[in-house]
Amino acid sequence: MNGPHDFLATVRFHIRPCREADLEPLEWMGTFTAHRDTFRRVWRDHQRGTASMLVAEADAFPVGQLWVDLADERHGLLWALRVLPGLRGAGIGRALLRAGERVIARAGRPIAQLSVAIDNERAARLYRALGYRQVGERVAEVEHRAHDGARAVAREKQLVMEKMLDAPRE
Ligand SMILES: CC(C)(COP(=O)(O)OP(=O)(O)OC[C@H]1O[C@@H](n2cnc3c(N)ncnc32)[C@H](O)[C@@H]1OP(=O)(O)O)[C@@H](O)C(=O)NCCC(=O)NCCS
């Protein structure tokens, strides 16, 4: 892209804990509406302290998210990372992951773990750049929801990746 009608925009964002008022905008104009019940379930875990939902906010809109599962004593699990198309490549995913790692370290878990579909090269490259190393492979059942709520489960081959975290500084 380098023509007279191509422009480069920078985006100002910040990472913060999710609020209940974010849940509806996080459906991204219908794209994730079928996952509303999952959002609600994770929100309840977030309120209980067994999970942490992080959002990237830009211009008062949640343009990215990362969920942290703290149910396990040893690992914090990072999942559901996504950044709004159009704002990818601006460092938002990286900042969300860094924030998720801080949440895990502060919760006293020494290891951050995540899984990534074997063909998701872009995400895997980002995880490797941040210090994640493959510790295994698994076949996971991944739920897909159509806009009408119809549910389909597909088997997906995933890499399991981990990173040892530094102890929190405070
Ligand atoms: C994976 C994802 C969350 C990354 O978010 P992001 O905000 O684009 O990530 P960043 O801007 O922090 O970029 C991180 C790295 O991605 C790579 N990257 C950025 N733009 C890219 C592009 N257009 N094509 C390929 N790689 C790119 C770069 O290696 C970059 O590293 P750098 O900071 O050294 O340049 C985002 O692409 C996304 O939402 N994808 C769809 C959902 C998904 O796959 N989630 C992960 C499930 S495991």
TrEMBL record:
A Pfam cross-reference name: Acetyltransf_1
PANTHER family per record: ACETYLTRANSFERASE
Annotated ranges, domain N-acetyltransferase: 13-166
GO molecular function: acyltransferase activity, transferring groups other than amino-acyl groups
Record-given protein name: Acetyltransferase
Keyword terms: Acyltransferase, Transferase
SUPFAM superfamilies per the UniProt record, alphabetical: Acyl-CoA N-acyltransferases (Nat) (SSF55729)
